[in-house]
Amino acid sequence: EAVEGAKRLAAFAAVDKHVGLKDKIIGIGSGSTVPYVVDRIVAQGKEANKERIFLPTGFQSKELIIKAGLTLGDVDQFPQLDVTIDGADEVDNDLHAIKGGGACQLREKVLAEAATTWVIVADYRKNSKVLGTTWTQGIPIEVVPFAYATVLSSLARMGSLSKLPNGKPGLALRMGVKKAGPVVSDNGNFIIDAPFGEDWMRKPAELLKTIKLITGVVEVGLFCNMARAAFFGNEDGTVTVRN
Ligand code: DER
């Protein structure tokens, strides 16, 4: 439907613009938009992909690469990438992004930072002005299990909202749906979702730094000053590109 078409539009436009023949080491993000990125790369043909190595940002991403018949690589061997393409939960005017809806933000940020070019692909729902406007469930934060309770109390002291504007629970450990107990990341850690008010969300780089310094925090789902460009598929079949 409209959202899936928009994801596909964004993914195709981003690959066409940022995955050229000279790009050999390619990072593949996580989520429901990146499968279209892989489709478009496969469509460039066997010749174009023969020498390329694809690095995953998690279990789902790894399976995508394998199923597409692309060559899987390990970041241990390829710690520098030409380009990484990934989704986002929300993107603001300055191309800062909330990520971690799929609890993959640690490996995503490693491959985003290690790439010469990092590009966001998303549907129109993610194209925002101020973070927290459309993605209201909070900043996804990966924490070591030992420290989840102490991190929760630090976040509460920072002003993380205990209730969302709609009255639903705010600051909390992310619990499994078809799994008893908390969600466990690909790295064996827990995820905390921490919503903040607009005062904090208007300064995402500062919020990122403050949260990152809490002992026990592994990685924060705020990607600031990282994106080269963001591609948003629109309902009317157009693509909005923001650089
Ligand atoms: O969890 C993540 O960071 C993913 O990239 C996610 O934010 C993208 O979600 P979507 O492409 O399924 O909307």
TrEMBL record:
Spans traversing the lipid bilayer: none
GO CC annotation terms, alphabetical: cytoplasm
Keyword Isomerase: yes
E.C. designation(s): 5.3.1.6
Record's catalysed reaction(s): aldehydo-D-ribose 5-phosphate = D-ribulose 5-phosphate
Family according to the record: Belongs to the ribose 5-phosphate isomerase family.
A GO BP entry: pentose-phosphate shunt, non-oxidative branch
Organism: Dioszegia hungarica
Pathway: Carbohydrate degradation; pentose phosphate pathway; D-ribose 5-phosphate from D-ribulose 5-phosphate (non-oxidative stage): step 1/1
Protein name in UniProt: Ribose-5-phosphate isomerase
Keyword Isomerase: yes
Single GO MF descriptor: ribose-5-phosphate isomerase activity
Taxon lineage: Eukaryota, Fungi, Dikarya, Basidiomycota, Agaricomycotina
Domain of life: Eukaryota
Keywords, sorted A to Z: Isomerase
